[in-house]
Amino acid sequence: MPNATEEPGKGESRRWRGQDPADRIATRRRQLLDAGLELMGTIGAAEMSMRAVCRAAGLTERYFYESFTNLDALQLAILDEVVLGARDRLLTALADAPPQPDKVFAHVVTRFTDYMDEDPRRGRIMFVESQATMALGERGNQLIVEFTAPIAMSLAGGERKRNPPDEVDIRLNAHAIFGALAFLYRPWLDGALDISRDRFDRHATSAITELARARSSSPGRLPAGK
């Protein structure tokens, strides 16, 4: 007898319970992503299994392979969803930030803290599980720059004429900012830092703003990377 969340195996091309086949596939994929996010954000990627994900989603294994080739593919999709969701939140924050340069990053940090606080599982997935396996580590390293480079470039804007960053400065600052975020947000989200949200946001703003100003380039002397 099929699970209550699944349709019978026959008649896949027909509507079932008011849904077209494509809609049913999308619904099942979302169930798997939600189940995977819960497991990845609580027990961790290394302890996950395809069977555990299917049990949590209320689906059989054949539906897992309908959307994902293997467990790595699911975990990568979850990582992308969390990190790119954070990136989009930050880009939106940059777009509607106050015009005063000294207030820009305070605004961005507040919005990022909102994103983390809405679902603390996001913090573990972004800052811990992004390096839990080889596949996640490779993708995580790609996402670090994509996630933080817009912040680094935005913060560098006020100093570009006096002290312009090169591409390596921006990339290194992106990694430095991500590392700072990881070691600031993880203990705060876990409750290990007994400080107010306002104090936390102010300190994160100060620390990350300073990191974004770091320079190792020598304009006019050495090419990027030297």
TrEMBL record:
<dbReference type="Pfam" id="PF00440">
    <property type="entry name" value="TetR_N"/>
</dbReference>
<dbReference type="InterPro" id="IPR050109">
    <property type="entry name" value="HTH-type_TetR-like_transc_reg"/>
</dbReference>
<feature type="domain" description="HTH tetR-type">
    <location>
        <begin position="26"/>
        <end position="86"/>
    </location>
</feature>
<dbReference type="InterPro" id="IPR009057">
    <property type="entry name" value="Homeodomain-like_sf"/>
</dbReference>
<dbReference type="InterPro" id="IPR001647">
    <property type="entry name" value="HTH_TetR"/>
</dbReference>
<feature type="compositionally biased region" description="Basic and acidic residues">
    <location>
        <begin position="7"/>
        <end position="21"/>
    </location>
</feature>
<feature type="DNA-binding region" description="H-T-H motif">
    <location>
        <begin position="49"/>
        <end position="68"/>
    </location>
</feature>
<keyword id="KW-0238">DNA-binding</keyword>
<feature type="region of interest" description="Disordered">
    <location>
        <begin position="1"/>
        <end position="21"/>
    </location>
</feature>
<protein>
    <submittedName>
        <fullName>TetR/AcrR family transcriptional regulator</fullName>
    </submittedName>
</protein>
